Predict the 3D structure of the following.
Amino acid sequence: MSLHPTPSRRHRARSALLALALLAALLGVWHAIVASPADAGAGMDAEYAALMGTAAKGGSSLPTPAEVGSTIAGHLASPFQYPGTEQPGLLVHLGYSLARVAIGFSLAVAVAVPLGFVIGMSPLMHGALDPFIQVLKPVSPLAWLPLALYTIKDAQVSAIFVIFICSIWPTLVNTAFGVMRVRLEWLNVARTLQTSRWRLVRHVLLPAALPTVLAGMRISVGIAWLVIVAAEMLVGGTGIGYFIWNEWNNLQIANIITAILVIGVVGVALDGLLAQVGRRFSYAE
Amino acid sequence: MTNTTHPAAPLLRIEGIAKSYDGSVRVFDDLWFDVFPGEFICLIGHSGCGKTTILNILAGLEDTSAGHVLLDGHQLQGPHLDRAVVFQSHALLPWKSVLDNILFAVQGRWPAWPREKAVAHARHYLALVHLGHAEDKRPAELSGGMRQRVGIARALAIEPKILLLDEPFSALDALTRGRLQDELVSVCRQRRQTTFMITHDIDEALLLADRIVLMTSGPEARVCEIVENTLPASRTRSDVHRHPHYTPMRNHLLEFLVNRSAPLEAHAGDAARDHRRPPIVRPLPAPALQGA
């Protein structure tokens, strides 16, 4: 018996209720800590305290939940323009980040899936390429960034390259694994029917391995979304990572928290999208 | 149908095939037998005598370590569409519908056919195994018996010279197995389909086979003898046990499996045995003449 049987509707409702209660408690504690009028700026240089904004508020320089709420509302009201300025808005930065991920991830899939098929179908290629994969896979994608900047000499392309290099591994490894693991009896059916190589890939290997390939792509897009924030912090100019770094320099903590929430929500959406595609191509044996 | 004489040339000749893995002990050795056109052959033996390996060799999925197999006088080289296999585990492609599974085989056999013609052909064979109503279902939605019927339809649909079946009904319950045996035998008789089937079920062999190849146990398994089925071709599952030949036939096969299937070397006087011509046996009731 599973520890988590399929939850009934009643159970789901109770879980949702508990989650809401936890959120309320979290916001309450947050508000209590930040807004408490404790010994404001005690032991702190008065000028520095004023600079940090603590003098005007309670014991912390962090924004209250209500302030973050109003910041979010401001960005929602003006998604294309930074509220009160001519600068690009949060949605524009998000669009840049998503575009970089889309391009880098698509290129990675275009390389990883065919290469994974070659590795999965040929023990020779598997033996030859596996050492390279094993050594390159654990390298932090950001370690490639200086090399990319030096050789490509274009910050935007370098960011895309970093996304490409970090998304390639899970898809590559999963594709090769999925192809290698295709059941012998299906291959035997294809052999007895004198199936051509192309028909074998199209009708047997691809559909058989597709759930595993898509699971790899799901991991890839998750990692790409993690890495893009750090890459944009380094590359600068545009993107949600740059936005956070810029707000840190401006000490706009509410904007940073807003961006964190946006990154989380978009990550969930990307993961859900890939999960949806995965379900579409899954099969029961 | 007479069982004793075969005016036609054999469709399939198995000539001295042997199989050993890593070059050591041979699982089976020096096997000789023929399969004639239109004939239904069953091969019986205990587990471990290499039955499935023999079928894989006939299918072209495995190589022999010695000897060769001739189909229509030509030596087998790898799999070919003139032989169709029904696998023990049905081996349907789970992401394809029932119709698409058969269509995959049909389009592989006749790539030039337009799609409508291939679909009509596939539907014909689906109807033959009484599954016309299930063409849009996925294999996972079918019972074990229905899946195996799709496997049989897929094999028949490419209209092979010989149908190869590897214990196709062993995973099914007795009732379903009986029904599928009836369907298989009627289809094969109607079409005069040459068929080679591996089984360990005596009653299945009695009902289906014209001749039964008996294998000794491995290692170094051999063809011990070939039994000609003396039951009338019109036999059916419901009446076969009432025929006077039934008991001697069944007892002969049972006696073989229980007492006589030990490796041949265990029997005295087998040194002079000619493996190329295994003894042919026609079990008959006691008052009649024995032997061939």
Observations:
- The mean pLDDT of chain A is 89.
